Amino acid sequence: MFDLTGKTALITGATGGIGGAIATALHARGATVALSGTRVEKLEELAASLGERAFVTPANLSDADSVAALIPAAEQAMGQVDILVNNAGLTRDTLAMRMKDEDWDAVLRVNLTSSFQLARACLKGMMKRRHGRIISITSIVGVTGNPGQCNYAASKAGLIGMSKSLAAEVASRGITVNCVAPGFIATAMTEVLPDAQKEKLNAGIPMGRMGSSDDIASAVVYLSSDEAGYVTGQTLHVNGGMAMI
Amino acid sequence: MSDVADRVKKIVIEHLGVEEAKVAENSSFIDDLGADSLDTVELVMAFEEEFGVEIPDDAAEKILTVQDAISFIEAANAG
């Protein structure tokens, strides 16, 4: 089950903890991967650790030309893109009253607009092949909201709405479009929190602990697989029961 | 019948899975041949590939019948 041999996957934000775990998991299931991100050295390190079937296709998703060049670059490296994982994202957290237009625009552009543009660019090939997987990493806050994250939450809710609409458009062509919504995931960022604060966070999670990047990667592997071919327009929440929606 | 018309009809028949007899020059993809909007996008992609022409979005929106497609391609090839 969940064999991805012969499939090709483009992962954006592959230098991050979750993106790296997704790339590693898809690769371990047999997929050829194209790793995208802004930090070329880190991408090359990851590609080297994966060995064969790993390509580096850097892109700055806040730059329109760079977004437009990414799918062609991935297609040139791998022949085609069967699986697109929109994982890249950034935050510019601040209270709404202090949020500048630039903070809003920057987050929406990278998290939402570039994801749509990449999905659109993949569709032609996917429609011809009657197969494709478009998976966007959204967030629990896209559904629940979170103070200080108007821009981020809007971008993540936007991914869910976009995915549902796109899913309805292309379902008849064998293409599925889904989201994975992480809750609290242990990363370098949460690592530095004081223990007392970690305990407080964990108390709000029925599982009593934060999730790992691998928990997210496993959900992406499932949605990428042939076995998930009848699942589309869905958001798979991976959050230890923190929000049951 | 021109070569372009034959090839256009062949693509339409294959893609939409309709009988050859049903496909006339004035057939509308959506109204007469049962295409949905995504089918029309795919037909345009297939025409582009078959004839090596680029059909911009605003022109594609006006290609509603078999004849529209033939006319566009013949004009593009002539230019």
UniProtKB/TrEMBL annotation, chain A:
Reaction catalysed by this enzyme: a (3R)-hydroxyacyl-[ACP] + NADP(+) = a 3-oxoacyl-[ACP] + NADPH + H(+)
Keyword Phosphoprotein on entry: no
Any single Pfam family the record assigns to this protein: adh_short_C2
SUPFAM superfamilies from the UniProt entry: NAD(P)-binding Rossmann-fold domains
Protein family per UniProt: Belongs to the short-chain dehydrogenases/reductases (SDR) family.
Its biological purpose: Catalyzes the NADPH-dependent reduction of beta-ketoacyl-ACP substrates to beta-hydroxyacyl-ACP products, the first reductive step in the elongation cycle of fatty acid biosynthesis.
Assembly with partners or alone: Homotetramer.
Entry protein name: 3-oxoacyl-[acyl-carrier-protein] reductase
TrEMBL record, chain B:
Residue positions, PTM O-(pantetheine 4'-phosphoryl)serine: S37
Keywords in alphabetical order: Cytoplasm, Fatty acid biosynthesis, Fatty acid metabolism, Lipid biosynthesis, Lipid metabolism, Phosphopantetheine, Phosphoprotein
Record's GO cellular component terms: cytosol; membrane
Single GO MF descriptor: acyl carrier activity
Compartments reported by the entry: Cytoplasm
GO BP, sorted A to Z: Kdo2-lipid A biosynthetic process; lipid A biosynthetic process
InterPro entries per UniProt: ACP, ACP-like_sf, PP-bd_ACP, Ppantetheine_attach_site
Pfam families named in the record: PP-binding (PF00550)
Location, primary (coarse class): cytoplasm
Family matches, as SUPFAM superfamilies: ACP-like
Role description: Carrier of the growing fatty acid chain in fatty acid biosynthesis.
PANTHER family hit by this protein: ACYL CARRIER PROTEIN, CARRIER DOMAIN-CONTAINING PROTEIN
Stated name of the protein: Acyl carrier protein
